[in-house]
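Replying to the earlier thread about multi-chain prediction with a worked example.

Input:
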Amino acid sequence: MFDGLSDKLSGILDRLTRRGALTAGDVDAAAREVRRALLEADVALDVVRGFIDKLKERAVGVEVIKSVTPGQMVVKIVHDQLIETLGATADPIDLNAPSPVPILMVGLQGSGKTTTSAKIARRLTDLHKRKVLMASLDTRRPAAMEQLAVLGQQVGVETLPIVPGQTPVQIARRALDAGRLGGYDVVVLDTAGRTTLDEAMMAEVAEVKQAAQPHEVLLVADALTGQDAVNLARSFNERVGLTGIVLTRVDGDGRGGAALSMRAVTGKPIKLMGVGEKLDALEEFHPARIADRILG
Ligand code: GDP
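Result:
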């Protein structure tokens, strides 16, 4: 089992005699352990490489302050760099647009997209006092539409009545019309996922985006996703264009590497995180918490 990177780094570097500044040799030794920790946390290989290069650049020559050991100094530099890469501040949903503000939810089936749509609707209703309408665009799975309606009832948020036979674009247009007519502030559009990244899903989501002109396009992604996280985030970002990421299952025992990978390849902020199955289990993103977990 992994011992915890902090202990390992301290161990390696504290064997060295104390010097004024970190040398290339000190940093190389530390970088090997950091690299191993990032890979164990399932951070994508390319992202690990970029991270380590930057770490070496910034750490060599740094003066070790008197109150800490060289090991503690490197741990602090790695931690700071992780937080910086993850996005230092929480970046909540942007509602600064004419009402009703369309929010498009995208992601793979099973990622927690429908649950997260309801969680976000609840948060906007309760915390931000907005009037929210939700609509499911999953024409392939009637059960998914029913699921959103049930979740809507549970959180006290209206869902668009289901009309069989409509295309996703038609439903999106109907939702926005209903949003305008009903004086809603926000319309949350829950798109259909697939179990794997596939062209039909991307084409459908891109078409809905074109029709709905959403102000936010949020990728819902499971924090337990391993190396696939990069492909997932990159594909959605290139094909559809994201404004942010919502990480689900942060309550699970994953090491959180997917967060770093997705943030690094898209440059898009992680806006919120799901921390449980309950509909109030949604929190603002805390980079420090993920950084601690990645460090092990
Ligand atoms: P979708 O197919 O992407 O719409 O996924 P669902 O919203 O149906 O969610 C799939 C399962 O994941 C459900 O059992 C949810 O309760 C569960 N789920 C969603 N978000 C979280 C989360 O943050 N933590 C945990 N533990 N479970 C979650």
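The longest helix spans residues 24-40.

Feel free to reuse this layout for your own posts.
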